[in-house]
Specification:
Layout: H1 2-31, E1 36-41, E2 48-54, E3 65-75, E4 80-86, E5 90-94, E6 101-111, E7 119-120, E8 124-128, E9 141-148, E10 152-158, E11 168-174, E12 182-183, E13 187-189, E14 194-200, E15 210-218, E16 221-222, E17 226-230, E18 236-237, E19 244-249, E20 252-257, E21 269-279, E22 284-291, E23 295-299, E24 305-315, E25 332-334, H2 348-397
Parallel strand pairs: 9-18
Antiparallel strand pairs: 1-2, 2-5, 3-4, 3-6, 6-7, 6-8, 9-10, 10-14, 11-12, 11-15, 13-14, 15-16, 15-17, 19-20, 20-23, 21-22, 21-24, 24-25
């Protein structure tokens, strides 16, 4: 009996505590209003924006709890939502200024006022659409950048589909170590119009957003701006490999090369080796091999076979997410000169040649027979004609019995 009463009393106490905790949590949840005054400010960093907000008025006097904010924004570069939690009232992130900016926020409350149970408020969404003006169709096209051997970077473009008269493009850039944007240090012109920008190595910054904007003016008005954000280390194009050797030893061909000269570290390079094998019968096949080594061995048959190699390099995944292949090296072959194909009288080529010779000789022989026969028949006709005339003359002078007979 005592045990049953004890269990009943514990259940009642538990229910009362749960009710009080739930009621208090509901009260706090009602106070966990969304952040107030959500806004996006543009400091002029070509896409690196500041998201700012204020503490909700319902939590201004809350002292025994911690207030945090969950911020989610849509990253148009990767095509997914990114999330961050912070106790601050601002957050900076990279956005594409040519697309709408989507931000979602909610408030999180945790501490003594919630019995140390985190309470989450309702999520709200804020959408900001950048406004850009300009002549329709004047936005540049085919923009791309190449960081040549980490010595300088060229960014080039083509004019828009509608290129108004007297158009003049301008490029501005910014990265996180700059206080404000700067204009292109050296424009690339073709022939006199600006079609690109050359950046010396000193003004570049790797492993960070490198923001650019290409806009301009024309006789018809301002040109539509184009905003580009990239990471410099993903644009590297190494120099071509200049030293490629092929050595033969113990039935193997050893292909050796040296890393290209320049500022790209050796440990950051991978190589694509292309080989071509040509047999003496004229057959040929090609293959490739991607490696991080600078030496590769291949089986080698010295009998009637020639192998040629060329190689190019690229920054590997250890040092960048992307990059450009270098130009191909000069091709190196082993042996350097092919030996002449030995004469084989009964191979297909020789048989065809012999057949042509035999047919030609037979036709010539037939033609000669026909020609000789024609000449003989002509001479025979001439002899008969002469004999007939002679017979006629003899018949006039002598009796018919003495006349010759022509055959």
């Amino acid at each position: 009996m005592t045990t049953g009463l004890t269990l009943l009393w514990r259940c009642v106490v538990t229910l009362v505590l749960l009710h009080e905790h739930t009621a208090q949590a509901e009260d706090v949840a009602g106070l966990a209003d969304p952040p107030a005054n959500i806004r996006i400010t543009d400091p002029g960093h070509l896409g690196y924006l500041s998201i700012e907000w204020s503490r909700p008025s319902s939590l201004q006097n809350l002292t025994d709890c911690t207030v945090r904010y969950q911020l989610r924004f849509y990253d148009t570069f990767t095509g997914r939502w990114k999330s961050v939690r912070t106790t601050g009232l601002s957050y900076k992130a990279q956005f594409d200024l040519e697309k709408p900016i989507q931000v979602r926020m909610l408030t999180l409350v945790n501490g003594a006022c919630t019995k140390h149970s985190e309470v989450q408020g309702e999520e709200v969404e804020f959408v900001h659409t950048p406004e850009h003006t300009g002549v329709a169709g004047s936005r540049i096209r085919d923009f791309h950048c190449v960081y040549f051997n980490k010595e300088y970077m060229d960014c080039t473009w083509q004019p828009g589909s509608t290129d108004p008269p007297q158009s003049e493009h301008s490029l501005y850039y910014w990265h996180r170590e700059m206080q404000e944007t700067s204009e292109c240090p050296q424009y690339i012109r073709y022939p006199e119009l600006r079609r690109g920008c050359r950046f010396p190595r000193e003004v570049l910054l790797e492993f960070s957003e490198f923001n650019m904007c290409v806009n301009g003016s024309s006789a018809a008005g301002a040109l539509e701006p184009a905003f580009i954000s990239l990471e410099v280390q993903n644009q590297v194009k190494p120099a071509a490999v200049s030293e490629l050797q092929v050595l033969s030893e113990d039935g193997l061909l050893q292909v050796q090369w040296s890393p290209p000269e320049g500022r790209v570290p050796e440990h950051c390079l991978e190589y694509e080796l292309e080989g071509t094998t040509e047999s003496m019968d004229g057959s040929m096949w090609q293959w490739t091999n991607v490696t991080e080594e600078t030496t590769l061995d291949f089986p080698w048959s010295a009998k009637r076979e020639m192998k040629c190699f060329r190689i190019r390099s690229k920054v590997s995944g250890y040092c960048a997410d992307d990059g450009y292949w270098s130009d191909w090296s000069q091709s190196t072959c082993f042996p350097e000169k092919r030996e002449k194909i030995p004469y084989e009288p009964w191979n297909a080529f020789v048989l065809i040649v012999m057949l042509v010779i035999v047919v030609t000789a037979f036709l010539i022989f037939c033609f000669m027979i026909w020609l000789v026969r024609k000449m003989w028949m002509k001479r025979k006709d001439q002899k008969y004609t002469f004999c007939t005339r002679y017979q006629e003359k003899v018949q006039k002078a002598f009796p018919p019995i003495l006349s010759p007979v022509c055959h």
